[in-house]
Amino acid sequence: MKIIFLGAPGAGKGTQAEIVSEKYSIPAISTGSIIREAIKNKTEMGLAAQAYTDGGKLVPDEVVIGIIKERLSEDDCKNGFILDGFPRTVPQAEALDKMGIPIDLVISIEVSDDDIVKRMSGRRVCPNCSASYHTLYKPSEDGVHCSKCGAELSIRNDDRPEVVLQRLEVYHETTEPLKDYYKSTGKLQLVEGQEELADTTALTLAVIDKASKN
Ligand code: ADP
Ligand code: ZN
Questions:
Q1: Per residue in 21-72, pLDDT tens?
Q2: Helices (H), 57-146
Q3: Where are the domains of the chain?
Q4: How far is CA 176 from the centre of its chain?
Q5: 119 carries an active-site annotation
Q6: Radius of gyration of the chain (CA)
Q7: d(CA 10, CA 109)
């Protein structure tokens, strides 16, 4: 299966993408994670991207399109993949179409702006291995350290409240129109984000199961 996850920042698409990735043994590709890794390693791309991500703005299309082109050409993507956070603009979606890789399903995780703002304050990440947590919805074992590698958890630079509002605005203006883009292809399915992570996962898996039988 080739699946795209859409949704506002903090809607939980990354978490769902990882669960589906494990269940179906296909890679979950997060442009946000690739960019954060590049920033951490101070690569040329990372240094150029940091001003955008820190300000809650999108990294320019040609940069992320380049990242995705390269990543999708790797062998592990042959049997399917999950895109988490790409495309985020209509030109990115058009570029993906031009790559000639047919997408089976587009899942948009729907969460209201109020809930997004509430959720974002609980997000935590591991600065060492990039695992993500949430104080309420997905706590680490001791609430302070990463359950995978033991490093102390931190708050992402772009999860500060003022940046979150900027990211939400960018989502509504630039990314949300992609729902219409994919609705017209018949590939779009909406999943209402639930209070409990497991309930959202159940809805997501049901949508994938149904699509895989088509
Ligand atoms: P979230 O979905 O929680 O906003 P991501 O980890 O997906 O977080 O993205 C973090 C940041 O990385 C974005 O705010 C943006 O600056 C950049 N980014 C990620 N994916 C894209 C993309 N497809 N196009 C442009 N910028 C992107
Ligand atoms: Zn870790």
A1: 999 999 999 999 999 999 999 999 999 999 999 999 999 999 999 999 999 9
A2: 61-72, 90-98, 113-120
A3: 2-26+79-111+174-213
A4: 14
A5: no
A6: 16
A7: 10
Question: Which residue is it, tokens 């990115």?
Answer: 92
Contacts of 185 (CB under 8 A, 6+ apart): 106
Q: Is the pLDDT of residue 214 over 90?
A: no
Q: Helices 13-24 and 197-212: crossing angle, nearest 10°?
A: 50
Q: Are strands 132-134 and 123-125 parallel, antiparallel or unpaired?
A: antiparallel
Q: Which residue has the tokens 């039988």?
A: 213
Instruction: Please give the span between the terminal C-alpha atoms of the chain, in angstroms, as a whole number.
Output: 12
Domain 2-26+79-111+174-213 fold is Rossmann fold (3.40.50)
Q: Which ligand sits closest to the CA of 149?
A: 2
Report how far apart, in Å, the C-alpha atoms of 197 and of each of 3, 36, 56, 65, 188 are: 19, 24, 25, 30, 21
Mutate to test the pocket of ligand 1, among 13, 35, 52 (most ligand atoms within 8 A of CB): 35
